[in-house]
Amino acid sequence: MLNSARVKSSFMPTLIAAMALSASAAFLVTPPAIAQLPAQLQSNPNVAALNPVQPVENDGKIEVLEFFAYGCPHCAALEPKIETWAKKLPADVKLKRVPASNPIRGIDSAPLFYTLEAMGLQEKLRQKLFDAANVENVILGNPATLNTWLEKQGVDLKQYAEVQKSFSIQNKIARAKKMSIDYMISSVPMIVVNGRYAAQVPGGSSGQDQLFANVDQLITGARAANKTVAASAKK
Fold it and tell me: Domain containing 18: what range?
């Protein structure tokens, strides 16, 4: 069962257990099999190297994944800051959100996220969903309550149901669930950098700021690793 509480440091040894992510080689590139944390983070209990590393999209950019759930209060608290942080990312870095596999507060985030994304409504309603679930205590895990809430937001319920049943959305839902399993995501929010590193929110009042400081360093480490791989490939 996915635990919405902040991850304990004991999560990290579990996370680095063997994982595998199946995907088409035409669209994915597998980084070197062994990842090492940047030197300055090797004693940090809130980050871990993923071994073996996971494949990432072969588009030349550093991939940052945020595993989240709408019913997770820590994800809701993090959302405003991750939005601000994302706007300042370098051109060679991209942020992708991945809804976690198991429901929290009864809310299955993957169908909701990908259906609204396909309808062009995900960004508009993302913060409202977090607020409804975690501040207003709307029982979005109840299908009838969810439909009523969506309708109040101007969502066409007939179109919503049709889009959710489509092959492309069902495929995205299945892939997100598989990623949560393959990355062994037992708690959210969790940030994964370029298939190499995972970072959790440290405890304390400055935990969110420290998370992004850690992720920024992991991005720098991933960029250096990519350059090393590229240089080796030219030899």
Answer: 11-234
